[in-house]
Amino acid sequence: MDRVLEGASKALNQLVDIHQAFIYNIAWKMTHSNEDALNLTQDVLIKVMTKLSTFKKESAFRIWLYRIVFNEFLQSKRKQKEKAFPSFEEHDRRLNAVPDPELTPKEELELKDYTREVKFRCTSAKLICLDREQRLIYLLGDSFSIDRNVGAEIFGITPQNFRVKLSRARKELHNYMEYRCGLIKKSNPCRCSKKAKSALKMGALNENNLIFKTCFTKKIGNFVTENLDTITDVIDHKYVEIFRNQFNNCVILGDKGYLSADYQLDLFESKQIKLEVPMRKNQQNHKKQTYIFRKKRKRIETLFSQLCDQFKIWNDYAKTFEGFKTRVLSKLTALTIIQYINKFVFNRNINNLKVHIV
């Protein structure tokens, strides 16, 4: 932050990257329009950059930033969706204008994607019916689960007042949906699937105007399926090159499922490298491995289980690859330091990680 205030352009770009996604998400949930959300995000970021010199570090920068963001949202011109759904009564009128035809089980299955689209659009429109302050407080408190103390500081009110306002917004939504929406009560008449069928017939929905475009998910899934063998072959080849260049005339413990039979034969013929699979005691033709193999295998398995459990190496959330790499390396470094202390300082089991270091 100090570098930003000093005028460093790279630091400013990093600051924008950190907060831009959150600002856009709030803007999109406020307007439910990609175009309006992009325009709002751009306007807010410009205003933030022009006001950076007024940041006095009296509060967290995030609080200062979001206060500007929400003030801008509250004061901006009414958007198209807000004009279309100014109240719950108007939402109810528009919803009732869409017929509720009967559906066969087959039709319900065929309309699955469109039903999800209707559900999303309808609940979004209900949120638009709240006034802007209620909408923002509801989004912060429910959608983004922001602590009421932080929310209160952003809006310049007491935590108790923030909690009361959030409760009122929830109550308004619930009161409207309780006797109408089939998602709340199965006895209620409104069904997303029925509305989807009518919306398709009326032309309000078609495969080109869906917000949730499952076709992209299907395309990605199809690509993975079609190219899996090719990718696996490339990975196998890389593994073979590593072993061929570094080892010869040896036995490697592993799982034959990771390497195809052709690659296993190639390794054996070119470098006399044999792949041996560890067997369990209850398997037929079980042959007990030598002590050194069993010890090394146990150490490797223990190491990876500790990395996954104690060090949570699978859970590395980062906005950039550099951030991801830093998190992984820091966990590996921490584990290595503990192993070093165990072995060379206290002369105890190297993988004994669940004890006090000193």
Structure description:
The protein is mostly helical. It has four domains: 1-82, Orthogonal Bundle (Rna Polymerase Sigma Factor, Chain: A); 85-143 and 175-212, no CATH class; 218-277, no CATH class; 290-358. Helix content is 65%, strand content 2%. Strands 1-2 form a two-stranded parallel sheet. Helix 14 links the parallel strand 1 (250-253) and strand 2. The two termini are 37 Å apart. 17% of the residues are buried. The model has no long low-confidence stretch (mean pLDDT 79).
What's the structural domain tally?
A: 4
| Percent of residues in beta strands | under 5%
Order of helices and strands: HHHHHHHHHHHHHEHEHH
Contiguous low-pLDDT stretches (5 residues minimum) are: none
Q: Tell me the total number of β-strands.
A: 2
Number of helices, where a helix is a run of at least 4 consecutive DSSP H or I residues = 16
From the N-terminal CA to the C-terminal CA, the straight-line distance is 37 Å
Task: Give the overall shape.
Answer: extended
| Proportion of residues in helical segments | 55-70%
Radius of gyration: 29 Å
Major beta-sheet overview:
2 strands, parallel
Q: Mean of residue pLDDT?
A: 79
The structural class is mainly alpha
What order do the strands of the largest sheet run in, or round the barrel if closed? 1-2
